Amino acid sequence: MREDTEVDTDLAQAQWETLIRAYRDHGHRVEFIEPVAGLPDMVFAANSALVLEGRVFGSRFHAPQRRPEQLAYERWFKAAGFDVHPPESVCEGEGDLVPAGPYVLAGTGFRTTRAAHQEVQEFFGVPTISLLLVDPYFYHLDTALFVLDDRNIAYYPEAFSPGSREVLGRLYPDALIATRDDAMAFGLNSVSDGRHVFVAPRATGLIDQLTDRGYVPVPVDLSELHKAGGGIKCCTQEIR
Predict the structure, then answer these.
(1) DSSP 175
(2) Residue in 62, 140, 196, 226 annotated catalytic
(3) Residue 195, C-beta contacts closer than 8 angstroms, at least 6 positions apart
(4) Residue 140 appears among annotated catalytic residues
(5) Neighbour count for residue 203 (Cβ, 10 Å)
(6) CB 234 within 8 A of CB 214
(7) Sign of dihedral through CA atoms 232, 102, 32, 59?
(8) How far, in whole angstroms, is CA 177 from its chain's centroid?
(9) SS3 letters for 66-102?
(10) Do 216 and 208 contact (CB within 8 A), yes or no?
(11) Domain boundaries, the chain
(12) Catalytic status, residue 234
């Protein structure tokens, strides 16, 4: 996310391919969208939409540089047979919209707006719970929280406002609580299928907690992609 940072593009490509293999090795189907020249952030597919019960709520990016991605992803979804609802408000897909059992947990404060949360609730008819992010290091909800299964989550409390922390504490009293070190290592930018958790290897404390809870951590190193502000979840758009 800083222009003076050098990225090893060959290593970034290899790490991305390692993530693909990890998903396939654990029984998941992976599809791809063709990249568009000049849009390097397309690799962060999670920001393109929220797909829930076969319905697609699209994106409207905060940054002008990313807005052309909206059309590319919309074309992909339509070619795959989906209708796409374009939001009226700024909304960055699964970066800030996290399906969690009977709810959609929705982040705001840096990118996605509260007005978009209202649109999501009206579109899906699913209770959508607004959570205020207050630490600029955790500018998307998927950097501060991920869903373990239909009943529980993992999160870093200090990324949230006091009221939002209280909401999460009431909803998820048995949540896995991450340290700042693990959160800064992109440990919460993880993907769980309910048993296997695809997680950044440097989040060692989080990995230990996951193991103690009976989950199976699958470490995947995306350190080169971290330089651009994303990790495992950012690279993964889940088609529900």
Answers:
(1) P
(2) 140
(3) 215, 216
(4) yes
(5) 27
(6) no
(7) negative
(8) 18
(9) HCHHHHHHHHHHHHCCCCEECCCCCECHHHCEEEECC
(10) no
(11) 11-235
(12) yes
> Over the stretch 188-200, which tens digit does the pLDDT of each residue have?
999 999 999 999 9
pLDDT value of residue 159: 99
Per DSSP, the three-state class of 30 is coil
CA 184 – CA 159 distance, rounded (Å)? 11
Residue type, 48: S
Q: Which two tokens stand for residue 202?
A: 């440097």
pLDDT tens per residue, range 21-69: 999 999 999 999 999 999 999 999 999 999 999 999 999 999 999 999 9
122-132 per-position pLDDT tens digit: 999 999 999 99
The one-letter code for the residue type at 84 is V
Residue entry with tokens 């230990």: 208
* Residue of 117, 196, 234, 235 with catalytic role: 234
Structure tokens at 14: 């290899």
d(CA 144, CA 236): 16
Architecture of the domain spanning 11-235: 5-stranded Propeller (3.75)
User: Rounded mean pLDDT of the chain?
Assistant: 97
pTM: 0.97
- Cβ atoms 185, 203 nearer than 8 A: yes
